[in-house]
Amino acid sequence: MAKTKSREPREKQRGELNESVVKIKRCAAVVKGGRRFSFAAMVVVGDGKGKVGWGYGKANEVPPSVEKARKEAMRSMVTVPMEESTIPHVVKGRFGGSEVILVPASEGTGVIAGSAVRAVCEAAGIHNILTKSFGSNNPIPLVKATMAALQELRPKSEIERLRGVTLS
């Protein structure tokens, strides 16, 4: 039976955190005795309640690289302001050749996103969102652009305070 590769990131539950392996890359270095392979993994970790982080780990085997990436993701977690199950306002994020636009959606819409952006949104606990990515479709800069966009979000109360008005 042939193995089928899934485009969706693998997910695990570790305690209260959701862990998604977004990408595993294999690198080959040609040495005297042949090829030496190493692996790089990108992991997104979130608690489903507004905290999310990403990590990138490299090792000679896949499990150690995933573990390194998971540890880095847990150290880099940030808080995402949310309104019910979506984001408060439209936001853009850029990293390298990738650009991501995140748009709040009404209840019941779901997560309309590609696999890399979906992994970040679901790990953060966002259940209703529309996204569009431009430029590179490489999952690594897409995750970084999504994280940059989520870090630009401001809660409605902060915007009201800064502007000195009340928003409906």
Automatic annotation (TrEMBL):
Gene3D superfamilies hit by this protein: 3.30.160.20, 3.30.230.10
Self-association state and partner proteins as the record states: Part of the 30S ribosomal subunit. Contacts proteins S4 and S8.
Protein name: Small ribosomal subunit protein uS5
Keywords for the protein's UniProt record, in alphabetical order: Ribonucleoprotein, Ribosomal protein, RNA-binding, rRNA-binding
UniProt function note: With S4 and S12 plays an important role in translational accuracy. Located at the back of the 30S subunit body where it stabilizes the conformation of the head with respect to the body.
GO biological process, one term: translation
Family statement: Belongs to the universal ribosomal protein uS5 family.
Domain spans labelled S5 DRBM: 17-80
InterPro entries: Ribosomal_Su5_D2-typ_SF, Ribosomal_uS5, Ribosomal_uS5_bac-type, Ribosomal_uS5_C, Ribosomal_uS5_N, Ribosomal_uS5_N_CS, Ribsml_uS5_D2-typ_fold_subgr
Entry remark concerning the domains of this protein: The N-terminal domain interacts with the head of the 30S subunit; the C-terminal domain interacts with the body and contacts protein S4. The interaction surface between S4 and S5 is involved in control of translational fidelity.
Superkingdom as given in the UniProt entry: Bacteria
Pfam families: Ribosomal_S5, Ribosomal_S5_C
PANTHER family linked to this entry: MITOCHONDRIAL RIBOSOMAL PROTEIN S5
One MF term in the entry's GO annotations: rRNA binding
TM segment ranges: none
NCBIfam families assigned to the protein according to its UniProt record, in alphabetical order: rpsE_bact
The keyword Transit peptide belongs to this UniProt entry's keyword annotation: no
One Gene Ontology term, aspect cellular component: small ribosomal subunit
Higher taxonomy: Bacteria, Pseudomonadati, Planctomycetota, Planctomycetia, Pirellulales
Entry keyword annotation includes Ribonucleoprotein: yes
